[in-house]
Amino acid sequence: MPGNSQRRRPLWLDADEQALGVIDQRRLPHQFVTLSLKTVDDVIHAIREMVVRGAPLIGATAAYGMWLAATNSMGHAPDPDHFRQEALRLKASRPTAINLAWAVDRVLGRMETASTAQVAVDLARHEADAVTREEIENCRRIGEFGRPIIEELSRANDGRTVHVLTHCNAGWLACIEHGTATAPIYAAFDRGIDVHVWVDETRPLNQGARLTAWELAERGVRHTVIADNAGGHLMQHGMVDLVIVGSDRTTANGDVANKIGTYLKALAAKDNGVPFYVALPSSTFDWSLRDGVADIPIEERNPEEVRWVQGWEGEGPVRVRICPEKSPAANFAFDVTPGHLVTGLITERGVCRATAADIRRLFADKIKTIC
Amino acid sequence: MPGNSQRRRPLWLDADEQALGVIDQRRLPHQFVTLSLKTVDDVIHAIREMVVRGAPLIGATAAYGMWLAATNSMGHAPDPDHFRQEALRLKASRPTAINLAWAVDRVLGRMETASTAQVAVDLARHEADAVTREEIENCRRIGEFGRPIIEELSRANDGRTVHVLTHCNAGWLACIEHGTATAPIYAAFDRGIDVHVWVDETRPLNQGARLTAWELAERGVRHTVIADNAGGHLMQHGMVDLVIVGSDRTTANGDVANKIGTYLKALAAKDNGVPFYVALPSSTFDWSLRDGVADIPIEERNPEEVRWVQGWEGEGPVRVRICPEKSPAANFAFDVTPGHLVTGLITERGVCRATAADIRRLFADKIKTIC
User: Is-cis flag, bond preceding B29, omega within 30?
Assistant: First the structure.
């Protein structure tokens, strides 16, 4: 489903159902370019290079990666070792988002029962479709559970604008439909609530300025791009009613890994009494971890992403260096916000506090299956 | 004194002493370009467009702006009303840095006593020279008082690297010589302390990535450029021993206005037990204010500075747009860090806590003159 028809999605099966179509998110907002992924290597490259990004979308893309592993094995008997090998490669493409391993293992689990190559293809396709469908439904429900938070602020405000700050992109581009952090915003907007979004630029890759701003503009939601440095000042001056962000991995205790810089906004929210919510489907929980700061692996990416900024000039995309030629840089992609800074987690089962007990109350069945 | 001879300065009198020479700091680190300011309008333009920036340098530049007001009035009897008018225009060029008003008023005070145009020129020149000389000496002393903080951390570390994080540029480019935040770093480095600096990029104008990285590279101080988002993560993982920043205005209670985003780093430092110091000459105190968040005027600059990033590509400077064409932006240039988040103020008279009582103890004489 290319992006110009119906409701856009960042992921679809090509018309002949032989390849996975994706929006090349590195090119947005300046160019709308789609790519066709035909092999596991294509998928790994797309995830690693952030053609696709965002925890739920990485999960769904990797799920279809397993389907491509199966389609590319047609003509041989299904080889569980090969599928396990491909699953390992896919899971290693990026380290922080837990949805990736969750989705790949889920599809692999189905494929291992396949008696023929065609059955492996069908099972993989079926399971990847199910992952995708469920994540869309999870995001829709996150929107429904999160919307009342914004409506309540609107009422308390006598209907005046509710100002929401978000960091990075946890919109439909990151999640197939609705988004996680954006789902409550879109749901409130669709109900006529006057909402305005402060969009953190989100250096180094500017997913806020590039992707969130683009999504919001397309939907007609009022928004303002700000430097990542600005949120604290806005909160000190009563210009932010609510922060909502997504997550790449959340521990059983409620510690939240998300795009680097999220923790700084959580500190500012706490210091100024601004509610700080994290929106996530249950696929983003890592039930095996408790202490997020100590235990969540944080990806370190190429420092060139910090030393250069990609943008648009005149008629084309241009990358400019923003520091001295020989100055080194470091590029940590995520940080961890301790649960005590989080007002609430907005999940597909409702809103809960970011504590072990509250999370367990909502997700006891899921926790049991891994313990 | 152009930049390639001796110890560089960002401000000098041209050889014929008819104009003020400055480094065009917008072009660094990619190009070393100097400009010659001949009129008050030139000076106002240079301050407003951030050809020169940094509170102490803005003060010194504006002081020489008053000297240019005098030189350009030669041939008439000195007109105090005209000088006051020019002083008002200079003081209005940027709103947050208090050094600007302090330096201009100081030179104006001397000029008002002039009986002839030549005397006005001489008095203005004398006072602007004095402002500059004193600010250099203040920065040198800030280095001497701040150096033991770094030496102590080095000793506690068994001589291993001391990691200092800084935000924006409070180096010699901002201060004529030594810098404020960088003065203790340079002083420790000169004594052979193993020091490494985390350089916040400092969007939107990237004074960290452009100017601080350049200064440190020129001096041979090890440094690493990071996104503004990264500092919290580094502090959570014990990778920052100390934060030192400058200030554009500090209240009598110790609330510190500095480049937007400073407050977020102060919160992270507090949360992780990392010492957070502010280095400033006494010209940066605003003795008339107490509550910084409520009372310090925060400059709002052109949103295009957020929507575009200036950098270098191939053979020349290029500006790239980093958000959708129609997405608006907001550009607050400073924020205020409440004194209770500040471990200490490093001044030319020593280090004190950021409290009204401790500040008064060091600067009783200066406070008295305005109360």
Answer: yes
